[in-house]
Amino acid sequence: MTTHRHNFQALMPEYIRTGVGVALTAGPVLLVDTIAPVAWALGILAVIFAAFAVTVALRQVSVINCTDDGILVSGPVRKSLAWEDLRYARLRYFSTRRDGAKGWMQLVLKGRGVSICIESTLTGFADIVARAAKAANDGGVELSSTTLGNLELLGAGKEVITSSSGSP
User: Interior CA angle at 23 toward 22 and 25, to 5°?
Assistant: First the structure.
């Protein structure tokens, strides 16, 4: 079994973005006399930023255990998925630049009514992706060409022989 956590330094940029977002949207509502439509719009945006801050905090306190039998997310929200129940796997890359040089990856695993989403800020992300790729291959889960390409980028693609078209 391997245990994985998000470290604070990896999540710090997200905490900074949420803090700035809340300050820039809630600040004017609380400190300046604004007209109602503007106050409502800024208030709604402040709530969205605060909700994002909660999701970042949930990621930080969650622990992900990966075993030969499945994956378990423990913390405030508990989820588990046995590898044999895996029916859907998607690995996407989100770029922060036009040239694709910087960004992050997101792994989504689904099966038996459970959906687990893991981002590449997690320690040991590539190991989890490799294990999920093996489970997808063993279970005959069809993977999109985008997922296959991203698996290759991480070096986990050599374990996978299935694709959306059924060809290697």
Answer: 65
CB atoms within 10 A of CB 55: 11
Distance CA 6, CA 63 (A): 8
C-alpha dist (Å) from residue 79 to 90, 122, 144, 163: 18, 16, 25, 27
Alpha carbons 125 and 106: distance in angstroms, whole number: 9
Distance of CA 137 to the CA centre of its chain: 21
Record the tokens describing residue 149, joined without a space.
Answer: 């390409």
The reported pTM is 0.78
Each residue of 139-168: pLDDT tens digit? 999 999 999 989 988 876 655 544 444 444
String of b and e for 62-100 (b: at least 16 CB within 10 Å)? bebebeeebbbbeeeeebbbebebbeebbbebeeeeeee
Q: Which tens digit of pLDDT belongs to each residue from 91-143? A: 999 887 777 677 889 999 999 999 999 998 899 999 999 999 999 999 999 99
Instruction: Confirm if 89 and 136 have CB atoms less than 8 A apart.
Output: yes
